[in-house]
Amino acid sequence: MRRTILSLTAALTIAAGAMALGMPASSAQTTATYPGTCNVTTSSVDAGSHNIASTFTITLAPTCVFDPGATVTVFVNGQSVGTKTASSSGTVSVQITVTSSTQLSIDDPILVNSQCGANTVVATGPSSVAGSTVTHSASFTVNCPAAAGAATKGTVAFTGDNIARWSAAALVLVAAGFGLVVFSRRRRATPGTSAPA
Q: Tell me: the pLDDT tens digits for 56-94?
């Protein structure tokens, strides 16, 4: 009986060894490999609200980061502001000053158009982890005083001094009153008599 158990154990050991020899050297070689490990090529973030004359920095950090040291193109409100070099963490930063309700200064020397309300910064560059080019955008709001907001829409702010309208109404009333006085005097005058002095 003991000899039978030893024979079975030896047979199982030999079978297990044979199976191990028949397997591929690395199971990783049987799976397909892809160029990147991240599949998000477009991402965005809200960069908050900012007042006129304020300066702030937006860090553009896409979900699938830019390649460190890569050249990244940047646009603000559709206008090119040049390129930036991605940092070691795969991001780029843009400093923005809201100089007026209609103008932004980007990294100090570049002036671009802005507007009261929504504005956008967009960065595009290569990403090895995505295996392609990625785009990251940041939207921010420019807060404008009510009068500045009205001026950008092509309207004049209402100040409460609508003198022309009230003056015209008063002139019409004076003319109507004068007309009534003349009409009543003529009506009282009868033919052959003179109007009272």
A: 999 999 999 999 999 999 999 999 999 999 999 999 999
Q: What are phi and psi of 163, to 5 degrees?
A: -65, -40
96 beta partners: 56, 106
| Interstrand relation of 92-100 and 55-60 (parallel, antiparallel or unpaired) | antiparallel
Are the beta carbons of 59 and 65 closer than 8 angstroms?
Answer: no
Identify the CA nearest to 124 among candidates 82, 187, 179.
82
Candidate from 28-42, 73-87, 118-132 with smallest mean pLDDT: 28-42
Determine contact, residues 42/134, Cβ cutoff 8 Å: yes
* Neighbouring-strand partners of residue 136: 43, 123
Whether the Cβ atoms of residue 45 and residue 138 lie closer than 8 Å to each other: yes
Specify the CATH class of 42-152 in words: mainly beta
Domain borders along the chain are 42-152
Q: Which residues have C-beta within 8 Å of that of residue 51, sequence separation ≥ 6?
A: 98, 142, 143
Find, among 133, 119, 63, 110, the residue nearest to 91 by Cα: 63
Backbone torsion region of residue 104, taken as left when φ is above 0, otherwise alpha when ψ lies between -120 and 50, otherwise beta: beta
User: Per the structure block, which two tokens stand in for 54?
Assistant: 């304020």
